[in-house]
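wait is this the right file?? whatever heres the structure
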C-alpha cells in the first residue's frame, strides 16, 4: 500500500456469500479494516480482525450503525431469507451518503435489478458494477459424481466459458472500493482463458491425480438429471439457455483483472489445485 492508498474501513454486505468472503479476504490482504454485515453473526466464521455486525438489507435502517465510519460499501442485489430482489436501494444509498460513504461496488445479479438501478442513478457516490461471468466454483457441483463414480455427466460439452476465480472478483472489488479511478464503471470480470467442459474435467483430473470420464448428456437427459437434483423449472430453463447458447460475454476473455489489480487473472488450473482434495475420495 502506497502513501496515497491509506488504510480504510469498508462495509461488506452479503459477506458470508461466495463473493462476499473473497471481498473480505482481499481487503484484509491489502491492509484495510473490514466490517462484515450478516443476518446471523454467530454463524459468520470470519478470521480475527474482521468486525462482524448484524444487519439486513431488507431493513435499511438496521444498517445505520454498520455504516458509521466506513468509506466504501460492497452491495449485493438480493436479500432476506428467500433472496428476493431488493427494493430498498434508494434508502440504503441515502443512508450511505449521509454516513460519508464515498465508494460503492455492487455485484451484478444477472439482470437489471432495482438495487443496481438505484446505484447507477446515485449522485455523490463513485459506484462500480461488478459483472463476473461463470464462477470457477460452479465446478464443485461435479464433486460427488467425480468422487463416487469417477465421472462428470454434462450436456453441451463443447461450450466455451471464460470462467473466473472468485478471488479475482474479490480483488477487483477491493481495488474499486479503496482506490480512485473506478467510479461509474462496469467491469466484466473473467478468467484468462476459454475452456470447454472437457478442458475443465481434464484440469481437475490432473489436479487430483486420477482420470475422470466425461459423459455427454442429451438435453432431455440433462433436464431429467437437474429435476432429480431438485432444480426448479426456471433454473432448468436458465441452465439450458446459458449452456446451450452461452452469450458472447461469457465466452470472451476480458483483461479487467490485470488492468484493475496489476496482476494476471488466476487460471482454472490454480483453482483446481486449491480444491483438489474435494475431488478425491476420502
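ok assuming it is, sequence goes like this
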Amino acid at each position: 500500500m502506497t502513501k496515497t492508498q491509506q488504510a480504510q474501513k469498508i462495509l461488506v454486505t452479503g459477506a458470508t456469500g461466495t463473493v462476499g468472503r473473497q471481498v473480505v479476504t482481499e481487503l484484509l490482504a491489502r491492509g484495510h479494516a473490514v466490517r462484515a454485515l450478516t443476518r446471523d453473526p454467530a454463524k459468520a466464521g470470519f478470521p480475527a480482525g474482521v468486525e462482524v455486525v448484524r444487519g439486513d438489507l431488507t431493513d435499511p435502517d438496521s444498517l445505520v450503525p454498520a455504516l458509521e465510519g466506513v468509506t466504501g460499501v460492497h452491495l449485493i442485489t438480493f436479500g432476506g431469507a428467500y433472496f428476493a430482489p431488493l427494493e430498498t436501494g434508494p434508502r440504503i444509498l441515502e443512508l450511505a451518503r449521509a454516513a460519508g460513504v464515498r465508494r460503492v461496488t455492487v455485484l451484478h445479479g444477472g439482470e437489471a435489478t432495482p438495487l443496481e438501478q438505484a446505484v447507477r442513478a446515485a449522485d455523490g457516490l463513485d459506484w462500480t458494477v461488478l459483472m463476473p461471468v461463470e464462477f470457477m466454483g460452479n465446478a464443485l457441483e461435479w464433486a460427488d459424481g467425480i468422487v463416487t463414480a469417477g465421472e462428470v455427466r454434462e450436456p453441451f460439452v463443447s461450450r466455451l466459458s471464460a470462467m473466473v476465480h472468485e478471488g479475482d472478483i474479490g480483488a477487483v472489488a477491493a481495488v474499486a472500493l479503496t482506490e480512485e479511478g473506478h467510479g461509474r464503471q462496469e467491469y466484466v470480470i473473467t478468467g484468462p482463458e476459454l475452456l470447454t467442459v472437457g478442458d475443465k474435467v481434464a484440469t481437475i483430473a490432473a489436479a487430483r491425480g486420477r482420470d475422470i470420464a466425461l459423459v455427454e448428456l442429451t438435453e432431455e437427459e440433462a433436464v431429467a438429471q437437474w429435476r432429480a437434483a431438485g432444480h426448479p423449472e426456471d433454473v432448468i430453463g436458465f441452465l439450458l439457455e446459458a449452456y446451450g447458447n452461452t452469450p458472447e460475454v461469457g465466452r470472451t476473455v476480458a483483461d479487467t483483472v490485470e488492468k484493475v489489480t496489476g496482476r494476471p487473472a488466476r487460471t482454472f488450473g490454480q483453482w483446481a489445485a486449491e480444491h483438489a482434495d474435494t475431488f478425491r475420495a476420502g
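The chain is about 35% helix and 15% strand. so i think its the right one actually
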